[in-house]
Structure prediction request, 529 residues.
Amino acid sequence: MPSKPAPIKKSPAKKAAEKAPAPAPEPEPAPVEAPPAEAPPAEAAAPAEEAPAAAPPAAEGDGAPVAPAQDAPAAPPADETPVQEGLDSTAPAEAAPAEPAVVEEPPKAPTPPPPAVPTSAPLDVSVEDVNDSSLTIKWKTPETIGDSGLDGFTIEYCKDGTTDWVVAQEELTPVNRYCIKNLTAGDLLNVRVVAVNPGGRSEPATLAAPVPIREVVDRPKIKMPRNLRVRVVRQVGEQINLVIPFLGKPKPVVSWLKDGQPLDTKRVNIRNSDKDSIMFIRTSQRDDSGVYEMSVKVESFEDKAPITIQIVELPGPPTGVKLVDSWGFNAALEWTPPKDNGNTEITGYTVQKADRKTGEWFTVLDHYHRLTATVSDLIMGNSYSFRVFAENKVGTSERCAVTKAVATIQKTGINYKPPEYPEHDFSEAPKFTTSLSDRAATVGYTTKLLCSVRGSPKPKIEWLKNQMVIGDDPKFRKLSNQGICSLEIRKPCSFDGGIYTCRAKNAQGEATVSCKLEVKQIIISEKGK
Prediction:
């Protein structure tokens, strides 16, 4: 859509001429109109710029009062109100109301940060590697760094006997390791490390001894046996003989420390060879416990290995044991751990009781881990004392803690009335638990029939053949033992086959079981004869 043309505003001179006849004794200040959101076109702005110069002559010729401020063109925005040139300075003060002046406080100057402080010196500078052209060193971060942080480290070196320190690298290194290259074989160098931060350089940390730049034939190395890598435990009075091999060429210098201090040569004997070091203690004591450190050193190279030795013995007795309470056939005890645990942890306690009549002690709890216990199954009318031993991995303490109080189990009247049980009737009719099985026998070969029966009272057993009772025939042998019934048929013939029945009878009834016996004849052919 085409844009609308901007309205043409009248100049201040024309507006003053039109309003001249009307008297205006007290002009009122005109409200300031807000400027339009969009800037007016260039054609409308041109007459507005020339209007202030033409306004004074028109006003003087007619004798009219000076035009008030409200006849001026649209005012600029409130935050940007420039003073236009050519306006009449004789305009009344009421035309533009004065705004109260705002007094602004001057901004306070920021507190300056505290000055940066250099860090402390690096720690534990040592040689990591060396050959005929380079040297590698390592160190630890300084203890005190400060709020300003750490920019890095610089490494410097000089020949032994001189003070001409040379910086090894162009830029600071942030890591705790550096390799100095392009060195001359045979030189003896001093090396130092300096920490740098915004506060400047720290105190230098220098190697303990100058380093010769040459290839080491065989670096020192301790070959710690597997059984010595963990804690070595011995009992008081035992002998300690540790053999620790090592490598190194030329022959390493071997040294020993105990808890960071030199060894007591009166207690510990050290014997070194080209390949191993032997630590020998003839009779160990509790004071020999500690962390022993062995080190082997070849020039600037060193290897260390710690060995922890623990000398243990039997613990002392519990500090105290007391009888807390006794009720019924029970007694409650409690005690405290021993002051001397034998240089090793307490693994349990042994609780014993003794009848005051006999005075003999009996163990009631063994390898017990708590500090309280309840002893039960005490005898009525007896008085008991109790004692407790402490245990560790060496064994049970030689001494014990005994209760001062005595637990007396009071007698109480008991009226025992045995329960009355109704008599049970065990009468039972005969019942076969195992029946007879059909059998096949051979003529002339003895066979046996078996079955089992139960009943109360004991049933009477009868055997029948083809429903006929077998009497006292010597061919048949009848047995009955613990409910097992058997019928033995001696050398049967073909006529002994048939149906055999076992019948059991008592006052409650009877039961029968049957089977079929078949007796076969062996036929021998003519050729076999």
The first strand starts at residue 123 and ends at 130. The radius of gyration is 61 Å. The chain has two helices and 35 strands.
